[in-house]
Amino acid sequence: MRHSSWLYGIIAVAALLLCGGCATTDYVTGAETYNFYTLEDDVRIGKEVYSQTLEQMRTKGIPVNEDRERVRELQTIVDRIVAVSDIPQFPYEVALIHTNVANAMAAPGGKIMVFEGLWDREKGLVSDRDELAAVLAHEIAHVNARHSTEAMTRDMGPSILFAIGAAYAQSQEKEEFARILAGTFMVYQGVVVTHYSRRAEYEADRVGMMYMARAGYDPEAAVRIWRRVVEEQGRNHSPLSFISTHPSAPQRVQQLEALLPRARELYLSGTPEP
Ligand SMILES: [Zn+2]
To answer: Which portions of this protein are annotated as coiled-coil regions (predicted)?
Structure first.
């Protein structure tokens, strides 16, 4: 038992030393940020998530990429937004999953999954090309801001500390301590992680709006989507899933409305920034 706590201690020190070198520059903001992973790691992790998800869908009998025309439309929009993004060198790819979920998500490194329910007349989110571009730009913004691997980096420290604490408690047979520790970890997950993911959603909204405008899509569409969500949430209490994220829809509308004049300028100038 003693051995395992020593082992965890060594791992923790090694990780902290390693993470001294994980200060890096955020590709979107140019600010200093912490990411333990390289761009190649993002690509590798993303590929794994993507192929596993698509494989799971197929085993469940859910078709992937069967509507060729829609897949082409998605690819065209993704290509145009990627061209004005901050990490265009990622191997971007988009898959259409034929299931009635109004959702889209991005794995690190540029692998995007779009669910057909997005176009659903009742529960869906998008009714035209610009609105589709708004959803895709939001996902591409997450990829460029590297939100997934940044979150994974942030989780390393607390996970390791928790593991050391748990090993210690186990070795001392201190059940009470282990229980308190588990509680603390849950609070960390609930408060800290939620805080960061809320911040990530706002950032993806902001960056996505500028990307779509620079790529030639009307940024007003992003505001339209979120206004619709606000109305929808007013009518029934089940939030749509693309949206089942932490910032409230009215707050997201507010931020996007404030950014709209700048985004419209980019859109109307019609010359994608380098
Ligand atoms: Zn998001």
So the answer is: none
